[in-house]
Structure formats: structure tokens, C-alpha cells
Amino acid sequence: MFITDIRKDFYEVVANQRVALLVASDIDALCACKILQVLFHCDQVQYTLVPVTGWQDLSTAFLEHKEQIKLLIKQDDDLGVPSYDDIFRDEDEGEGSDSGNESEEGSEPSGKRRRFDEVREILFDYEQYEYHGTSVNVDFLCRWAVIGLTDQWVHDKITHMKYVTDIATMQRHVSRHNHRNEDEENSLSIDCMRISFEYDLRLTLYQHWSLYESICNSCYTSCNFKLWTLNGQKKLQEFLADMGLPLKQVRQKFHSMDMSIKENLRDVIEESSNKYGMKDIRIQTFGVHFGFKNRFLASDMVHATTALLESTEKDESASDNFIKALDSLSRSNLDRLHSGIDLAKKKLMAIQQTVASCICTNLIVSQGPFLYCYLMEGTPDVKLFSKPMALTLLCKYLLKAFVQSTRNKRCKLLPLVMAAPKDVEKGSVIVVGIPPESETSDKKNFFGRAFEKAAESTSSRTLHDNFDTSIITLKTEDRSKFLDALITLLS
Q: Where is the composition biased (Acidic residues) (predicted)?
């Protein structure tokens, strides 16, 4: 049913009728009921408790309580929600209708059967793999939605094609907000925040760094030039010479470069990049402006916020780092954002140095079904990589660099598992698994389920304390047993 009158069609239904309360098996039903009472100001909510532990339980709940389930959406929203009959059907009815259609149309299944198979496949993928959907897109959270989408692209959670598709959708929302603010009644001061769609360079933090340092520490350019080799360093010098940019200008801060150079800098870099095989040097993105002085790309804010969230410079709690990261997203706390950018620079330099070290010392080894790399204690900046997002970003950069440098075609198709010390005093290590390097295929990560099974088979003392199930914490002495079990499981 579509809701047109919130009091009549929803509030009174919840207050005066019994509703199906679908909750996770580990959630207190009384607590959930109290939340409903607070949300809808009901003195009493009659409910049917339906514990849910997986999609099979959801299917059963829908079958048994379909009359009590209400969908609260706008009437003009088209969510593509299938009807009950398109998903669920009696076995006898399904077999009879399918057999009749198949006899008339050969082996082509009916539309209803195809829809049922599609839903079943989606639910199967949900249980088996880990992957990321579209970032939140709420009107009054437009800026955060932009940052969320950019975070998925920066950390390689979605494909490049999905990023381009989603950013086109996001552009329409941003344009609508900007158009609304152009009216005389709603016009904003120049000091207020503005979001603009831009076609900018794929160079990390280059507007807050020197152009040279940004090229050296950006994954895209570093891997294409293979900057961990002497030939790569030579090629970079040739690239700078081809652009005709003086080294003095390239090595100083971007905001200190001559205006005559900065005016055409993007076009000059794009032209030279095409000659060196970097045809995707420019990317669709958004810029955030605070007056004339402060300008940040969405990727700048992603790197700054992530660096603050996982800061290891001071012995501060995770909750303190979270508050600081949240503060950096506030338009009134630009100093916090700039400090996050400084931390992000240090992290990116540490990542590039570690990537070069791992490749030059052959730390990446093939374990059969996957590649494996372990950062030992004493490795420079190893404390930085005790954090999940920092280690994941290193893992992704390292795999891209390895694919660029190896001649083994089989290794280019393998996923990567990487481990690093997490807490030396407690004797724990953090392990991350990522899918094979690809620009086009879905970013489905099967390591979450594989890690869980490997830990169970070895009775390892494991800890799943991350949103991504492909990240796990082990005791140091259990690492070898866990790795052997994972090889056996995936072989």
C-alpha cells in the first residue's frame, strides 16, 4: 500500500492493529517495540515477534505476515518492487505454468520464473559474497552522499563503471540544489558552501601538495610509471619535460605555482598523459567550495577523514578519532580538515614506500589459489597498517603495482591476502583479503565467508570487529594454521 495520509494510513494502523516486527535474532524485541512507540507516539503497539537470522527467515516471514507488512514510501517513487506473485508461488502452480510455457516456447523460461530465479540469485550472492551498493542519496545530506560515493571509488569498493553511473545520478541532485539556490529569495552568500560537478585530475591531494609529490604518491600514476624502478623514475622525468613545466614550479606547493601555469595545467597534463598511456587521468568528481579561498575535491575529504579516523600519532581512543573525523566534515571546522589532509599525505607516502619495498624484495608470494604478503614487525610505518582501512588501501595499491610489474599471467588473475601486526603486546595480527585486480568486473569479495570457515576449521581465536567481513583479527601463533586452512579451502 502507498501512504498518502501519514496519520490515517500509517499511524492509526500501527497504533490499532497488530504489526509484524522483523528483528535480528540478537536484538531485544522489547527494545525494538519501545522504539516504535517513541517514533509514532503510540501508547501501545501490538506486534508479532519474527526473529530473522538470514534471508530464508525473511522469506518465511513475508509468507506468513504479508498482510501486516507496510511499505512507507512516496507515491511517485518507483522502486521496482516486485509484487508478491512475481516472487512467491505455489510449487504446483509454478510447475504447471512453467511446463506449459516451456512446451510452447521451447526451453525459454516464463517471465515469472525468470524473475524468481533473479531474486534467488541476488539473495544467494548476498549470503555468499561481500560487495557494496549505491551510496546514500538523501537531499539534505547531499554533501555527505557525494563523499560516501567517492569513498567507495577511492577504496575500490565499486567498479569504475558503477562510479560513473552513480555520479551522473548524483550530479542531477547537486544541479537541482544549485539551481534552487540561484533564486533571489534563496541566494546564498559567497562564504557559504557550494558543491560543483567537475572533471578534474586523478592526482591525489594535488591542490594541497606539490604536483611532483602528488604524481609520485598517487596510485594511478605511480603504477603506470612503475616508480619503484629506475626506468620508472626516468619515465617520470620525461613526462614532466614533455609537459614543459619547470621543475621549480612542479616541486613547490600547488597554491604557490604561477597562475599562468595553473590556468591550463589540467589540459597540459591530460595531453601528455595520453602519450604515456594514461587516458583516464581526468575523472568525474565534485568540488566543495567555501568562499574563494578554500576548495576541496571530494577525494580530498575522503582521504582526510579516513586518516583522522585511523590516526596512530597519539594514543587516543577510537571514539576520539571518530569525533575528530566527524568534525572534519563540518563546514565550520576547516582546521580539522587541513590536519586530516596532512595525515593523509603521510599515509600515502608510507603506502608508496611500502609498495616499492614489497615488490623490490619479492615479499609477494603465490600460495596457489591466492597471493600472499606479510609485513613483519620492524617494517617502517607498520603501526600505521594495523588499521583496517589503511591496510586495505595498501593491499589494493600493492596488487595494482604487482599486476603492472609481473610477467606471470596467472598471478595477474589471483586475489591477494595481506597480514600485518595489529597489537604486538597482545600478540595479534590483522588479515585482509581483496578480489583480483579488475576495472570492469563486480567487486565481489568471497574472503569473508572463506575467512570464517578457515577460522572454524583450525579453531583459531579470531575476531570479526569490522564492517567488512573480509577483514579478520588473529592471534599471531594462529596465522600459519589459518593460512594453511585457507589454502586447502580455496584449492
A: 90-107
